[in-house]
Amino acid sequence: MSDSKPEQPRDPKHPETITQDLQFSQVSARVPDKVSPGVHASGVLLLNGPNEFILDFLQQMVQPPKVATRVVMNPQTLASFIRALDENVGMYDQKFGPPKALPTPPPGAKPTPIDELYSQLKLPDDMLGGVYSNAVMITHSPSDFVFDFLATFYPRSVVSSRVFMSAQQVAPFLNTMKRSFQQFLDKQAGEASKGPPPGAN
């Protein structure tokens, strides 16, 4: 029996560099001690740039309101999160019935501009960069949903943030993500239809 390993593919431009596609499946994720207790959120602010979405989970019962955790994910991950949460909400409704709807804003109420919202929020310096997530595990009970945001890298997935939300808050959160993601897609489609700017290579 030979102990030799198969030759790994080499980059023709850099023959000294060996590349290899790593494939692994995880059925569990490591939960760091500081993440294990999770945070409770009573609201979410959703922001997006050209390459990422930022989910700021809020604690609004404290004064001043604070960002409990900031999660950063790419558009593909957000799209997967939306699909998975949509399925979970459907399963929740079948098992427990739809949760009681949250009160709606009074007629004529105008949304607060985003810069004004953030001027009122407490956002600690150590949270400005957020935590990265490229996968999400969702569980629920009759009263709560739990989101385990994962950083799935070789060799082991890790929970980068754990968020608890009441079942009542999840449907509005899901609708916000759907609207925001559709606006993102519409903007991308509009920019693509304009073509590259003059002089671009």
Q: Could you describe the 3D structure shown?
A:
- The structure is a single chain.
- The chain is of the alpha+beta class and 201 residues long.
- The chain has a domain at 30-99 and 117-186: Secreted effector protein pipB2 fold (2-Layer Sandwich).
- Helices cover 28% and strands 29% of the residues.
- The protein is built from three helices and ten strands, in the order ββββββααββββα.
- It has helices spanning 75-96, 114-120, 167-194; strands at residues 10-11, 14-18, 39-40, 43-48, 53-59, 66-73, 131-132, 135-140, 144-153, 156-166.
- The chain has a four-stranded mixed β-sheet. Strands 4-5-6-7 form a four-stranded mixed β-sheet.
- β9 (144-153) and β10 form a beta hairpin.
- α1 packs antiparallel against α3 (167-194).
- The radius of gyration is 21 Å and the shape is globular.
